[in-house]
Amino acid sequence: MKDTRTLIKAILYTRTLFGSILWLTTSTLSKIKPIFEKTYNKAARMVMGSLKSTPIIFLKRDSKLKSILATHIIRVHNMILRLATKEETHPAKTRVLRELYEEASSYPSSIHKLINRERIANNTRPEPELINPFPTKPWRKILSIKNMGATKEEAEKSVKQLVSNRNSQELLIFTDGLDIPDKGKGAAAIAVPLGLIITRHITNTIPTTNFEAELVGIKLAIKLIRRELYARRDKGEKMGEVHILCDNQAALRKVADPTNPSTGQHLYLPTSNHLISLSQLIPVHLTWCPGHTGIEGNEKADSEAKKAASTASTQRHMIPPSKAKIKQQILNKNKPEHFRPEESKRLQVKSCP
Q1: C-alpha distances in angstroms, 288 versus 71, 158, 162, 299?
Q2: What is the pLDDT of residues 9-52, one digit of tens each?
Q3: d(CA 85, CA 129)
Q4: Domain of residue 295, residue span
Q5: Bridge partners of 203?
Q6: Is 286 in contact with 258 (CB distance < 8 Å)?
Q7: How many distinct structural domains can be found in the chain?
Q8: Confidence (pLDDT) at 116
Q9: Which residues are paired to 171 by β-bridges?
Q10: Of the candidates 260, 267, 262, which has an alpha carbon nearest to the alpha carbon of residue 142?
Q11: Are 152 and 216 in a shared domain?
């Protein structure tokens, strides 16, 4: 079954959809769709080895074969997405995006006539995240992280000692970011013991991960550091060591060493570069602080991040969607068909009285 399905996708679907971005448009869809459905039904029967009398709803459910139309939509969507995430100097990017967002004045192009044009336009707004395959120079400085590799108990003890032994010139900033299902995402950075707080309500069109929310929290810490640094300079005061404490090790690792390209680069790469610049002026340290251990600064940051997540009136931070997330969303919306209640109702066997 698997080999047959692979052959159908590789040969039948590829030949059927050759150049479909040009000829499968809103004006031709009504004529072509019945042909696609008939071809799909035959292909599904071939995959299953079923007879002609087998109801098509079983074939849709068990063949695990996407419809030809869904395959076309996914391929066109991914093609546009590839162009949308090219560098700004790419000759096709500007034209494709312009035709995607703007209506044709007189002579519509193939982009204007795409059957899923509106959905593609929505998925490329805001512009998807661009990931640089070579984000940093190989000889750049890698920041160290305190407590990395320590047990939770050891790290908790180390952070509590850091808080209790802090002098007046030192600055401790606790950060947090989280996603509350059905409410929203938020991030916060809190300076101890000054009581300075920055929070953001995170918005985007594609679901955000906790990892990205944590990176926003560390980014907010940079704002606090710069704000306090300039304030002390104006007063003629010196700035001592700065400690950024976060309970997410993955976010800390990315900020410390951003050499490997991955999702969230628009967050961790500038943050890392800012930290490198700040470290030339003042000592800056990244520290892992275990969460939910009763450390006051961490608990306060968690509380403020929750408030920001559930309060849309909080100042907002927009996270551009990644190409991988958009692709996954496209696949989820175009999965092989399953039973629908109205289809399967007639197949249900009634129990004997």
Answers
A1: 45, 10, 12, 14
A2: 899 999 999 999 889 988 899 999 999 999 999 998 898 888 77
A3: 7
A4: 145-320
A5: 318
A6: no
A7: 2
A8: 77
A9: 242
A10: 260
A11: yes
Is the peptide bond prior to 258 cis by the omega test (within 30 degrees of 0)? Answer: no
- pLDDT in the model for residue 335: 62
Distance CA 133, CA 85 (A): 13
Give me the chain's average pLDDT, please: 83
What beta strand segments (E) does the chain contain?
Answer: 145-146, 171-180, 184-192, 196-203, 242-246, 284-288, 316-318
Regarding whether 296 and 149 lie in a shared domain, the answer is yes
Token pair of 272 as six digits: 């890392």
Nearest to 285 by CA among 157, 151, 148, 177: 148
Is residue 343 domain-shared with residue 310, that is, in the same domain?
A: no
pLDDT at 339 (0 to 100): 47
Whole-angstrom Cα distance, residue 188 to residue 175?
6
Q: What is the CATH number of the domain that holds 242?
A: 3.30.420.10
Q: Are residues 172 and 208 in the same domain?
A: yes
Residue in 31, 54, 245, 276 with CA at minimum distance from that of residue 143? 276
Question: Cα separation of 92 and 237, whole Å?
Answer: 53
Three-state secondary-structure class, residue 243:
strand
C-alpha to C-alpha distance for 36 and 23, rounded to whole angstroms: 14
Tokens of 177: 């970011």
- Using the Cα atoms of residue 49, residue 55, residue 56 and residue 61 in order, give the sign of their dihedral: negative
| Separation CA 108–CA 98 (nearest Å) | 12
What is the chain's alpha carbon radius of gyration, rounded to the nearest angstrom? Answer: 27
Calpha distance 202→312 (Å, rounded): 9
Asked if 174 and 288 count as a contact pair (C-beta separation under 8 A), the reply is: no
Q: Is residue 135 part of a domain?
A: no
Low-confidence ranges of the chain (pLDDT < 50): 338-339, 343-344, 346-347, 349, 351
